[in-house]
Amino acid sequence: MNHLDPLLKPRSIAVVGASQRETRAGYIVMNNLLHGDFKGAVMPVTPKYDSVAGVLSYKNILSLPIVPDLAILCTNATRNVGIFEELAEKGIASVIVLSSDMHQNSDNGETFDSRCLAIAKKHNIRVLGPNSLGIIVPWLNLNASFSPVTALPGKIAFVSQSAAVCTTILDWANDKEIGFSAFISIGNGSDIEFSELLDYLSTDSHTEAILLYVDSISDARRFISAARAASRNRRILVLKGGRTAKGRAAAMAHTGGADTLDIIYDSAIRRSGMLRVKNLHELFAAVETLTHSVPLRGERLAIVTNGGGPAIMAVDTLFDRGGKLAELSEQTRDKLSNVLPSSWSHSNPIDIVGDAGEQRYIDTINILLDGDEADAILIMHSPSAVAHSARTAERIIEAIKKHPRHKRFNILTNWSGELTARPARKLFTEAGFPTYRTPESSVVAFMHLVEYRRNQRQLMETPTTAEKVHIEDLADAKNWIERQLLDKDTVSLDTHQNSQFFKHFNLDVLPTWIASDPSEAVHIAETIGYPVAVKLRSPDIAHKSDVQGVMLNLRNSSEVANAAQAILDRSQLSFPTAHIHGLLIQGMAKLAGGQELRVKVTTDETFGPIILLGQGGSEWDESIDAAAAFPPLNMTLARYLIIRAIKSGKIRLQKLPNPIDIEGLSELLVRISQMVVDCPEIHDLDIHPVLANGDKFTILDADIILKAYEGDPQERLAIRPYPVELEETIQLKDGTDVLLRPILPEDEPLHADFINRVSKEDLYKRFFSDVGEFNHEALANFTQIDFDREIAFVVVRKEQGVPAIIGVSRALINPENTDAEFAILIRSDLKGVGLGRILMTKVIDYCRAKQTKQMSGMTMPTNRGMLTLAQKLGFKLDISFEDGTADMVLPLFE
């Protein structure tokens, strides 16, 4: 049983604070439970009444005749501490807290929320809320909520931090006859939050898609990990509030979250494989689309319309959002010409002319359904005296459903207008076709499907390998950091001080000298040669531009002396208490043909280190001028960060003799990512600018803030990086040295070759079926893993100078860390050299180090080699010849 089953599949419920007063939450919750026809026991708890809504009530929780699975607290926060103590004594597993005032301080100075949570944690009580609206699970006839409306049954789960958004969505969905598999209001999410619910809903057979309304996230790593896992088998859309500074402030007041930049959330949503919608209007459109769509085969959209203007608006929206129009073949155009008037558009959009009747629509749609030039069809209709809106819709619905290939296409409809179009839209909704009021909203809804498909494909793309930093260089970099910090907690370093550090990561830094006064600045300039740049050096003036602290292209001693003195004078005048540590002198970089970029690393309170990329320049607002990505980056993720920065205008490509080399910039970003991953002391890093000249990148100015760090360096990262510490060289029985290491995304070609060299019989024993050939998606699932949730170890040896995978073991660990499901596969021509024991021992040691409770696996009774090895390693075997299965279990911790 899942640990959330008592909450989401309760067999009995206690309503604490049940009431006979219609305006009270205790009355509404009781009414919803009883009128929803919930089959389990409902027990009102109140000392005020003998019965509520005709149901016998109980004076307190301890007097209940049974232990309910779920308690719903409709009480004032001041009573909840005592109630939680009773819940613990009774042994109740789950509670929903509706109270919105739990943040207030109790008599001992602690908040009611913190006191209740302490009791809950001690007694393993799971809490939804506070400030929750409750839950609705339509397929269980369960409405355990404070909502004025209930939800219809459907296949979409909705999870929200905002109760008001919940009721808004419910009211709209009921009007559109759209249903839900679950409707969950998490409120402030003090205990149960998004990650656990995503884990639960992603394996729920009643749920096909998940919608989230998010104000803030408290545990970034758990959220991203759960979302990545869930998005592989469920479509997930996110509406994130707080896109602006004022919006973030409101969100912080609402849920108590941190002030995290919106671009960081945007990056987290994208990196997790989810899709973000901008507002409620888009969310409504997305719900409509998800309810009635099939997985996209491609991105080509065909548009059928009786009006040119609306079709033009649709095309504009499509191309604004990066969509594609289907191209009609000559054969298809000929077929259309046979059924359409000569004045039809002869291209896509297919304008069938304003006097189009029902049959003209049907003929056009059938031709498109017969062909393979489109993946989706948008059918548009403007009010017409010739074609009655509702009757045309009815005939089109009949024709599409009769066509044998209609399920291969996503069909979307846009019946514009209100009075005449509303009955037609209702017909489409009832028939299961998504329908929209405007051309723009219909295309936006289609692009949600496209963007989701693109996100998933990007995450599955096999990355190329970036050149790694040598172990010796990394050790030198760590030693350098140690020397800088010594007995300090925090230290700020400028370009001159940190240039050696960058060189350890093979990054070019423009040579820099320090001058204490204008005369020394002149002496340095004369030595290195003109032209030069003179820059202010002060730990207290964050932005040199505040005092015009950067002077460029100085060509003689007089210009250098004057510029240096002017910088010092302006600094003294504007910041009289600032410490001035002299001046930085640099030779001028060859700017001709180059473009200045800015790369920054900042540490967010919730998400940890973030890499920001944008255009160079002194005026730089992180929330507006940068694209963001999480370390660790590989070459593919770095390239998509660059592309996103360019497409969103954060980097404005210039027409230069040596344009920015995307591959080279990707390599730079990967190195900075590795720097951040391997050196946890880096709190902030600002390269402003880096000069991009073709494939050459030179750091002109860079500041680093180092902070002493203790603990696991990986814990601060939102995404767990590759665990390089698990690599080891081992020796097989035949004396061959091999590398045993975790799997990498770049291993996909090696993994494909490995599987091709495993016999069909061995593959059958591993997968319990004839698997055939593995496609890219399947191989990506094997190689692109989340190290927070699973592990795969490969043994790699050199064969004719080329690395080859010869064996793999893997373990998928459940979110509760109670079980790790393992599997192992050895190349068929290399059995008997000790690979099985090596791989199994490695994965057992890993799970034991993670304190996983047990390991489990399944094989066939005929797989004697696996069973013998498992028994030797301490596994308990349960063999069923009747079922053709053999279960293997290894307890790790009792």
Automatic annotation (TrEMBL):
Organism, by scientific name, is: Vibrio lentus
- In which family does this protein belong, per the annotation? In the N-terminal section; belongs to the acetate CoA ligase alpha subunit family.
Cited InterPro entries: Acyl_CoA_acyltransferase, ATP_grasp_subdomain_1, CoA-bd, GNAT_dom, NAD(P)-bd_dom_sf, Succ_CoA_lig_flav_dom, Succinyl-CoA_synth-like
* Classification of source organism: Bacteria, Pseudomonadati, Pseudomonadota, Gammaproteobacteria, Vibrionales
Q: Which Pfam families match?
A: Acetyltransf_3 (PF13302), ATP-grasp_5 (PF13549), CoA_binding_2 (PF13380), Succ_CoA_lig (PF13607)
Name assigned to this protein: Protein acetyltransferase
Q: Report the GO molecular function annotations.
A: acyltransferase activity, transferring groups other than amino-acyl groups; ATP binding
| Annotated PROSITE patterns | GNAT
- What SUPFAM superfamilies does the record tag this protein with? Acyl-CoA N-acyltransferases (Nat) (SSF55729), Glutathione synthetase ATP-binding domain-like (SSF56059), NAD(P)-binding Rossmann-fold domains (SSF51735), Succinyl-CoA synthetase domains (SSF52210)
Residue ranges occupied by any N-acetyltransferase domain in the UniProt entry? 738-894
Keywords of the record: Transferase
